[in-house]
């Protein structure tokens, strides 16, 4: 039984992430999408909100579960008896960070292998940051995210506006 972990911030989940999730779920028996709690970035969505949005997006994929975790990703993977860590590679710009991360993780926990999936060309430009930028300027983001995520972003934007803040 091969268990894989797909870690990330998912702030929020995009159609690019979902493409990786669907493909990774096909080649692993079990996939745990793991939302990092102590991300250094200033997140738009709370961890609970990010997990809820991901769960809604993945509800029809039977071998996918969503969890949050704190601390080292390899420690979380070990606790869940995972042997694979999935990461998506969009462009050369991702490569430098990702190879360093994979090598560090391998040094820390040699039993866990990082599996890179090349992003579908359709989503190679897409990031959570781009989605938030587009939403901030009122662009249509339905191409980038699922309807539940779109609604959640609009609700956030409106709440922030009411508080006199911006995204
Ligand atoms: P992190 O902060 O860990 O990079 P992200 O949520 O930004 O978290 O990304 C999680 C993973 O998903 C990373 O491996 C990233 O390369 C990948 N990813 C992000 N956007 C896309 C996309 N458009 N297509 C495929 N993979 C993506």
From TrEMBL:
The keyword Membrane does not apply. GO terms for molecular function: ATP binding; pantetheine-phosphate adenylyltransferase activity. It holds the Pfam family CTP_transf_like. Its EC number is 2.7.7.3. Substrate binds at residues 9, 41, 73, 87. GO terms for biological process: coenzyme A biosynthetic process. Residues 5-133 form the Cytidyltransferase-like domain. The keyword Oxidoreductase does not apply. It catalyses: (R)-4'-phosphopantetheine + ATP + H(+) = 3'-dephospho-CoA + diphosphate. The record marks 17 as: Transition state stabilizer. InterPro entries: Cyt_trans-like, PPAT, Rossmann-like_a/b/a_fold. NCBIfam families: coaD_prev_kdtB, cyt_tran_rel. PANTHER family: PHOSPHOPANTETHEINE ADENYLYLTRANSFERASE. Reversibly transfers an adenylyl group from ATP to 4'-phosphopantetheine, yielding dephospho-CoA (dPCoA) and pyrophosphate. Homohexamer. This is Phosphopantetheine adenylyltransferase. It comes from Faecalibacterium prausnitzii L2-6. The lineage of its organism: Bacteria, Bacillati, Bacillota, Clostridia, Eubacteriales.
């Amino acid at each position: 039984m091969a268990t894989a972990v797909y870690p990330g911030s998912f702030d929020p989940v995009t159609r690019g992430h979902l493409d990786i999730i669907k493909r990774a779920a096909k080649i692993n028996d079990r996939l745990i999408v793991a939302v990092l709690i102590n991300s250094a970035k200033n997140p738009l969505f709370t961890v609970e909100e990010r997990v809820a949005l991901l769960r809604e997006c993945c509800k029809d994929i039977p071998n996918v579960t969503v969890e949050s975790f704190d601390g080292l990703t390899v420690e979380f993977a070990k606790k869940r008896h995972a042997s694979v860590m999935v990461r998506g590679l969009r462009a050369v710009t991702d490569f430098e960070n990702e190879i360093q991360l994979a090598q560090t993780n391998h040094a820390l926990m040699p039993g866990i292998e990082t599996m890179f999936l090349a992003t579908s060309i359709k989503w190679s430009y897409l990031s959570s940051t781009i989605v938030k930028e587009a939403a901030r300027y009122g662009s249509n983001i339905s191409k980038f995210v699922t309807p539940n995520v779109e609604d959640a972003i609009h609700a956030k934007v409106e709440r922030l506006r009411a508080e006199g803040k911006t995204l």
